[in-house]
Each structure stands twice: as structure tokens, then as C-alpha cells.
Amino acid sequence: MRIGIVGAAGRMGQMLIREVQGNATAKLGGAVERAGSDAIGRDAGELAGLGPIQVKVGADPAALFDACDAVIDFTAPAASIVHAGLAAAKGKALILGTTGITAADQAKIDAAAKSAIIVQSTNFSPAVVLSFALVEEAARRLGPDYDIEIFEMHHRHKVDAPSGTALSLGRAAAKGRGIDFDKETIRGRDGHTGARPTGPIGFSVARGGSETGEHNVMFLAEGERLEIVHKASNRQIYARGAVRAALWAKGQKPGLYSMRDVLGL
Ligand code: NAD
Predict the structure, then answer these.
(1) N or C: which end of the chain has fewer CB within 10 A?
(2) In a shared domain, residues 61 and 8
């Protein structure tokens, strides 16, 4: 299985090169950066801190798609649209982790998935994706006697709150409980708040230091508490999940898939 990496010099790109190189069933089919990048012409292994692997970083994504079975893309929305078009034109697989995709761009990705195999996820950690399913199921089975509270903690540089993953966990809980997420949440408490109402999903947030990310979904009832907790200690989990998705994509029919499909959920 030949896997190509676009955005090879990026934080995720370098991790992806290391992950493909360390995977016995995958082979690095090539690596590409944006035109003008200092990384072009450098050895991809050296760029990723592995030492030379005789794969030079190129600037031609079309040639990369020709040389590979699947391409992994953690770059920027404008680039990812181009890559989705190339995957469609060449009938290849694209593993898409870029975030911040607008609805208009998503429509182009959806169209490309008519002829390409696209696995798209805003979180490629298999454990996080599984936790969405666990939270949905717990909310469905436990019912409204259990108050749902979601706590998340991230490093001091994170600018948005709650995290996108916390909101996805909330949406999964709302789906399981059968409530409208957009209307039934509590976002932060301060002062005389009154007693907790039954039903809405509560959020709380901590920021500080270098925490990679922790999410804790609590189901609280009289006399007991169930917690579904995920703790990330580095971003390699996303690269590992993306390589797993690339290996899974081999032999699939064209279409738009998610990590839920990869995990068989
Ligand atoms: P980064 O800025 O470190 O890396 C992005 C790289 O893409 C850069 O090297 C840039 O030069 C390159 N690039 C931009 N345009 C390009 C083009 N046209 N062709 C080739 N390369 C191009 O960013 P990062 O931290 O690695 O994150 C990249 C993206 O992945 C972001 O959207 C981020 O939110 C997302 N991300 C997703 C997950 C997930 O699990 N889905 C996890 C981590 C990051």
C-alpha cells in the first residue's frame, strides 16, 4: 500500500511521515509541499527527524496521486479542495483531516467523493471516535434521570471553547437522549444559577499549560456517576488513525466515509 503525504513539512505532515515509515504494511509513496516551501527538494525522512529515506519532497500533487494508492491530507481548506479533485480525477483514496472546511467547500468534497474514496474526519483518534458512540449509547440507555456534564481541558494557546470535540460529544449525547442540542445546553455557570434543570447538557472548560487535551463526559444520578474519559498525551494519535484509515480505504467503493466506518461503528 503506497501512501503519499501532502503538507509534508507541517506538524501533522511530519508525524504522518514517521507513522507511515513505522508501519509494516505501508510504504511512503511520496511527499509534497506547497509551491515555494523551503522543504521542497529535501529528504522527507530528514524533514521528519528520521534520517534520509531517499524520498524527496516534491511540489506536484498530481504526480503524487499517480504514484500512490492513497494520499493523506492535513493541510488547509483551499489545498484540500484541490486534492479532493485530484483524487476524483485519478480514482484514488484521500484521507482528509484538514479542519475549518466551509459548507461550500464541503459540497466540492462531497462531489469529488462520487469518484474518489474519501475518508474525512475532524478527529482521527480511533478512541475519540469510539467515545462518541459510547456517549450516544449511554445517553440513550440511561435516560433523563442522569444529568450529563461535559468537561474539557486544553493547553493555554487554544482560542475556542468548548473544543470542537466537546461539542461533538455533546451532539452525540443529545442524539442518544433525543433532544435538540442547539436548544438544550448550559454553557458556563457563575453566581446564583438556581438548581440544575433536568435535561440540558452542561459544559465546563479549563485552560492552561501544555495539556494536549482531555474530555470527560459525566452521567450523574442520585448516588452514582459514570464517566467516559479520553486523555490525549500527543498528536501522534491522529497520524496513527489516519494511516489506519488509509489502509482501510484500499478496496472500498468511491464514496464519503468517516472514522466511524473505519471502526465499523
Ligand atoms: P501546519 O500549519 O503545521 O501544517 C500544514 C502544512 O500544509 C504546512 O506545511 C503547509 O505548508 C502545508 N500546505 C498548505 N497548503 C498546501 C498545498 N497547497 N500543498 C501542499 N501543502 C500545503 O498545520 P497542522 O497543525 O499540521 O494542521 C494541519 C490541519 O490538520 C489543520 O486544519 C488542523 O486543524 C488539522 N488537524 C486535524 C486533526 C484531525 O484529527 N482531523 C488533527 C490535527 C490537526
Answers:
(1) C
(2) yes
Where residue 62 sits, what CATH number does that domain have? 3.40.50.720
Cα separation values, 20 from 60, 117, 119, 200, 208, Å? 20, 19, 17, 43, 32
Laid out side by side, the sheet with 224-232 consists of 185-187, 201-207, 147-154, 213-221, 224-232
pTM of the model: 0.89
Please name the residue whose Cα sits nearest to atom 19 of ligand 1: 34
145 lies in which domain range? 126-232
Q: Are residues 17 and 68 in the same domain?
A: yes
Distance of CA 76 from the midpoint of ligand 1 (Å): 5
Over residues 49-100, the pLDDT tens digits come to 999 999 999 999 999 999 999 999 999 999 999 999 999 999 999 999 998 8
> Which atom of ligand 1 lies at the shortest distance from residue 12's CA?
26
Q: How far is the CA of 193 from the centre of ligand 1 (A)?
A: 41
Q: How many domains is the chain built from? A: 2
Q: Are 18 and 50 contained in the same domain?
A: yes
Name the residue with the closest Cα to ligand 1, atom 42. Answer: 238
Instruction: Write the CATH number for 139.
Output: 3.30.360.10
| Triad 14, 16, 22: Cα angle to 5° | 110
Same domain for 179 and 106: no
Residue for grid cell 442522569:
146
Measured from the Cα of 13, ligand 1's closest atom is 26
74 lines ligand 1 (CB under 6 A): yes
